[in-house]
Design a protein that fits this description.
- The chain is 30% helix and 38% strand.
- It has 81 residues and is an alpha+beta fold.
- It has one domain.
- The protein has a four-stranded antiparallel β-sheet.
- Strand 1 and strand 2 form a beta hairpin.
Amino acid sequence: MIKVYEIHRYLNDQFQYVVARTHKYTEEKVHLDVKRMNTMLSAEMRKSGVRYVFAIEDMSASNKKTSSKYLHQQNKNPWAR
């Protein structure tokens, strides 16, 4: 099974779009990118509720998509590891 790591953009609790998607980098690298992107947000954007969230999507060996497993759905705190 191949794990694809994604960075999602949210406005408050509403998903907007997938910012990035990769299977070439490690989970730790993508987590660090998400943290860096969140710290780069301006104060105005943070106030308006913009945030980036790490997500994992599992791909089966036959390249069929399976349901995504998002960190924020597995864990009450989306920023926790």
